[in-house]
Amino acid sequence: MDLDIKLKFKSLKTKVFIWFGGTTFIILLIFNLAFYYFVNKNINLALEAKLYAKGLIIYKKLSDITKTKAYIDNKEFPYLEIAIIKKQKIIKKTKKFEFENLKKYLQRTGNFFIVTNKENVGALYLMTFDDKFDGKIIIYQKEINENMEDVLTIMLILNPILLLLLLLTGNKMIDKILDPIKKITKTAKDISVENFSHTIPNPKEANEIRELVNSFNQMILRLKDGVDKLDRFNSDVSHELKTPITAIKGEVEIALRKCRDSQYYEKSLKTIFYETSQMQEIVEGLLLLTKFSKNNIKDTFNRCNLDTIVINITGKFSQKAAEKNIKIQIKQIEAISINANEPLIYSIISNLLDNAIKYSTNDKSIYISLYKKDRIFLTIKDEGIGIQEKEISKITDRFYRVDESRNKKIKGFGLGLSIVKNSLELHDASLHVSSKKDIGTTVTVIF
Amino acid sequence: MKLLIIEDEENILSFLQRGFSEEGHIVDCAIDGEDGEYKATVNKYDVIILDWMLPFKNGMEIIGSIRKLNIKTPVILLTARDETSDKIIGLRKGADDYLTKPFCFEELLARVDGLHRRNISGGNDEIKFKNICINLNSKIIKKDGVAVEISAKEYDLLLFLIKNKNYVVSNTMICEGVWNDEEFINSNVIQVMVYRLRKKLGKNIIKSSRGLGYKIEI
């Protein structure tokens, strides 16, 4: 529960919502301030113009002082208070004209002032005439703030409503945008090693979410592929290990049924030793397959002389070849060195040559060449039993063995070529196999 | 009983052969499918133990061809394949039982005994005829309710005769079915055995047909 609340607070939606709300609020605030400022300014300008006009009217009628007095008393502009100043003294004013710091304003430059009193805000307009009138007319409007206060009130009421509406629509929009993400989450939760059947329905319009969904679906497929491979690999391993385990278990069980003589035990132990060696071979082969990856292989690279390795391995296998009277001939060899993992290179070439010998009948030849054209080529050509075309693509699969090899009782687990292929991939090298049944196989490694 | 084991892994074949021989069974071995199929069709066995993956001819093909020849010998499949679907295929094709590797020899022994028992008595633990009662589980034979001491070979011979009840079995057939070794053919071991069985169980249990062989009438 606690985590839920924490998550909710930290959730993308909350973040987007806070950002959206905050930004909207700030923009609204700036807009309102600007609006208020301009409206205020306009109102003041209009007021100034109005007061000026009134002042002019009064001035025009000032030729006759009595008339002026009559005019000032007139109720034509009840909201205006007027005073006339000559030689720094008020000589005439309307009844309600009261002004505390008049002198302060009289000394200032400019004509129009906003006067802030305790109770209200007023506007004062000073008109100075240097002609025969030689005096000042003061027009004072006691209260001007009504309009502005209205604007402020409207703003204070409207803005929260506007903000609320924006946030509500924003909330809905965020939900709509996040909806596909929720679907992805749901699918992701349903995915497990046992269940890869779900993919996420793709949104119709092409957008970023669709790209995400696509990548996600592809990831599911890749994972499924990987897990399938792993499953098959596991079942292969258990299958291959079952044979030696059966032999060991049975041998022990039979040996323990009675008291035996030492010869019997010796024979039993020899059998067990042989079978455990078989298991070791399988496990080591598998380790070789999984030990290195593209990421860590580069650290193990050093300079290898391919020609030396080829000659060494040929020497090592000459005994085995001689048993079947097979001639290994090096047709062409150039001094070539590459950066590689030496044990892996050894195992690659050993496996290939071992296969060539295993699948050759007696009295045949094997030809090896190593040369450099734009890339480095190593070919091993045998005159053995060959492989059917439809089988060639499968021979590098783990534990795959061509049926004929089982039939002809050639020993092996079907791991060799799989190790070769894997090791070559780690060296960015490739394997090419061409073969004709009963004529022979040519294997080419290109570095 | 007489068994045929068809298995291409030499070490597995070796301990199976020793184990069953020590139990007093006669064991024939085949190291590949073709040899196994030949032996299964030419000789008579009580039970065949068959590996699935074999060189030249796999276990399924062998079952197919022997069933085609109307050979009803019980077959127990022995294989590393442990998927249920594989078991179903094996049993549907005509195997009578299925055991996955690695297995316990004792279990295989028990299953083989079971198959053999079912084949002889149709599933009953006991065979009764006249005043004789044979318990196939404990291998105890009672005459008129009294247990009779009997050797393993005599027991095998008796079961062999019961299996071929009402038919005359020749010396050669007995030799192949119970001893497997040709060395007895020219000896009178069979005669001696029959004599001893008659002495223990009663004279009229085993009938002789002069020059042809013996039979048990049930």
Short description:
The complex is a heterodimer of chains A (447) and B (218). Chain A has 447 residues and is of the alpha+beta class. Chain A is built from 13 helices and twelve strands.
Rounded to an integer in angstroms, the radius of gyration calculated over CA atoms of chain A is 50 Å
N-to-C series of helices and strands of chain B? EHEHEHEHEHEEEEHHHEE
The structural domain count of chain B equals: 2
**Element order of chain A: H for helix, E for strand:** HHHEEHEEEHHHHEHEEHEEHHHEE
Structural class of the helix and strand makeup of chain A? alpha+beta
What is the 3D shape of chain A?
A: rod-shaped
Largest sheet of chain A: 5 strands, antiparallel
CATH level-1 class of the largest domain in chain A:
Alpha Beta
Instruction: Identify the strand order in the major beta sheet of chain B.
Output: 2-1-3-4-5
Approximately how much beta-strand content do the residues of chain A carry? 15-25%
What is the strand content of chain B? 15-25%
Averaged pLDDT of chain A: 80
The oligomeric state is heterodimer
Largest interface: A-B, 20 and 22 residues
CATH architectural grouping of the largest domain in chain A? 2-Layer Sandwich
Largest sheet of chain B: 5 strands, parallel
Number of helices, counting only DSSP H or I runs of 4 residues or more of chain B: 8
Q: Could you give me the name of the CATH homologous superfamily of the largest domain in chain B?
A: Response regulator
What is the fold-level CATH name, i.e. the topology of the largest domain in chain B?
A: Rossmann fold
Radius of gyration of chain B: 18 Å
